[in-house]
Write a structure and sequence with these properties.
heterodimer, A: 205 residues, B: alpha+beta, 8-stranded mixed sheet, 32% strand
């Protein structure tokens, strides 16, 4: 936890690199994408598509609630878009650069809250350890992969996952909304989670 | 048969995870379930599809507007969630005196965590927020315009017996100790705190008919002619009533009403549980529209929509039962 800034940055970069499968080819591709976006901001959306889940997974695991996670994620991509011209390709993967912005945004968010509403009894903790271990990076990649896989589930299973885990609706409510029995909804929930588990195991090195 | 029981077992652990005050790895009886649970825990943080799409179009809009000036201010086109971070769609706003003492009670009895405190010049509390479990309670000493109004809160906890005991130590009086005989099927106890608030302390067993879309903190309104509240909330907030139980005479024995991502409960006032008009803070996507619908539905205005200095579009109305609804849309920093 006491790592200085410089090695921390290196480790972050390395971790981000290792977590993503198909590295070498992908980095060249990504370089092309970044340079395209630097020429034309409209091209930024390709980078957004590539990194949204990763950034969101990182932020969501470090803030208190969904609204804050959305706020911070939104800030990260807006800053990413603004600062893109100053991004230089020096072997720091774009993902690591974005996560650095995210780490700062999370700290800023905590500081802002503390400044606006000082609570003397509990000083704000630094929300983000600045040195991301490889294992933490892998956890983020793993989580991001899970989010992406949900999008590939059969439509009805996907619906159950969103209703249950995002909307936090009860089985009973979901059953009513989908016109199914509660038993069927539980079964769909099981199938969805089993599918995701199988894909995570299959797709993760 | 085996498969079906796995579906039920998984749902039990998912259920426990979703309602737990402090999400933590559940003890699962076997490896199969443990590995499924691991996936389910990841899904808790799944981003909303609407958010992903909204942010994307925000970025696209900005990129097309500012082709030459990449240094545009970031705040402008930000996709802001309409709820203030830390709050859900419905938060009870409890005005009691002294508010500072009440906050101590929330901390002692419910392991509440103070999120903010804004003192007035005279040292009273103008506004404060205490997180309890996965929900929050807003607190104030109030003033002439906003007089004392204790509330009834249904509180979901991990251990109702321990929580009940702590409330008594903190000065609450008991209606009844936690029991398994409550009609909800939950283990359920009830107390009144020294400030006049009711706390219904429960642990969910399975997903009971009441608390759909479960939050730790749910306002509980005891009303006369409670059945009229349902169409009112549907019309004003686009609320959804779930699990409405009525007596043969048509009185509402219990109903859960969902607004956005949170719920409140109502029933027909009875016995010791008489009406306690209270203040509720409700986040909606469009304050002006909700305010207009509320006025059309016969509320009286407390405050017309305005941009409040703390960054909300805010309005206030009082309903026919005397409850105040503070309607708000978070506008971002």
């Amino acid at each position: 936890m006491k790592a200085t800034r410089r090695p921390a940055r290196k480790r972050l970069a390395k971790g981000a690199d290792e977590g993503v499968p198909g590295q070498a080819a992908r980095r060249t591709d990504e370089r092309v994408l970044v340079e395209a976006a630097q020429r034309d901001p409209a091209e930024f959306q390709a980078l957004y598509e590539l990194h949204f889940e990763r950034v969101y997974a990182f932020v969501a695991s470090r803030v208190r609630d969904r609204a804050t996670a959305e706020d911070v994620t939104s800030e990260v991509f807006h800053k990413g878009l603004s600062n893109l011209p100053s991004y230089e390709w020096r072997g720091v993967p774009f993902a690591a650069w974005l996560l650095r912005i995210a780490a700062n945004a999370i700290v800023d968010c905590a500081k802002r809250a503390a400044r606006e509403f000082p609570a003397p009894d509990d000083p704000p903790e630094p929300a983000v350890p600045m040195d991301l271990q490889d294992s933490q990076m892998q956890a983020i990649e793993h989580r991001a992969q899970l989010f992406r896989l949900v999008g590939q589930l059969p439509e009805i299973q996907k619906q159950v996952v969103y209703e249950r885990f995002v909307e936090q609706r009860s089985i009973r409510e979901i059953a009513q909304r989908l016109g199914k029995t509660e038993g069927a909804v539980k079964q769909l929930q099981l199938r969805a989670v089993q599918n995701l588990r199988a894909q995570m195991e299959g797709g993760h090195g | 048969m085996v498969k079906r029981s796995l579906a039920m077992q998984l749902d039990e652990v998912v259920q426990a995870m979703l309602v737990s005050l402090r999400p933590r790895p559940e003890k699962a009886p076997d490896r199969e379930l443990t590995s499924l649970m691991h996936v389910a825990q990841g899904l808790r943080d799944l981003p909303r599809e609407e958010f992903r799409a909204a942010l994307k179009s925000d970025l696209q809009r900005r990129a097309s507007m500012s082709e030459s000036t990449a240094a545009t201010r970031t705040g402008e086109a930000k996709a802001v969630h309409y709820q203030r971070p830390g709050l859900t769609a419905i938060t009870p706003y409890i005005i009691v005196r002294p508010a500072a003492k009440f906050m101590e009670f929330l901390k002692t009895a419910f392991e509440g965590v103070e999120q903010m405190r804004m003192p007035a010049p005279d040292g009273t509390i103008m506004h404060a927020e205490v997180a309890v479990g996965n929900g929050a309670i807003e607190v104030s000493d109030g003033n002439e315009q906003y007089p004392t109004a204790p509330a009834a809160i249904h509180l979901y906890v991990d251990d109702p017996d321990a929580t009940y005991a702590r409330t008594l130590q903190a000065g609450a009086t008991s209606f009844y100790a936690p029991t398994d005989d409550h009609p909800s099927g939950d283990r359920w106890g009830a107390v009144k705190d020294p400030f006049g608030n009711h706390w219904y302390i429960a642990k969910p067993r399975g997903w009971t008919p009441g608390p759909e879309g479960l939050r730790s903190v749910q306002p509980y309104l005891h009303l006369r002619e409670a059945h009229k509240m349902i169409p009112f909330l549907e019309a004003v907030f686009g609320a959804e009533a779930t699990g409405v139980h009525k007596s043969p005479q048509g009185a509402v024995l219990h109903a859960t009403i969902r607004i956005g991502n949170a719920t409140l409960e109502i029933d027909e006032a009875h016995g010791e549980f008489q009406p306690m008009p209270c203040h509720l803070h409700v986040y909606v996507p469009d304050t002006d529209a909700v305010y207009a619908r509320a006025m059309a539905a016969g509320t009286t205005s407390i405050e017309a929509p305005r941009n409040a200095p703390y960054g909300d579009r805010a309005a206030g109305v009082k309903d026919a039962w005397g409850n105040s609804w503070f309607i708000a849309t978070y506008l971002g920093q």
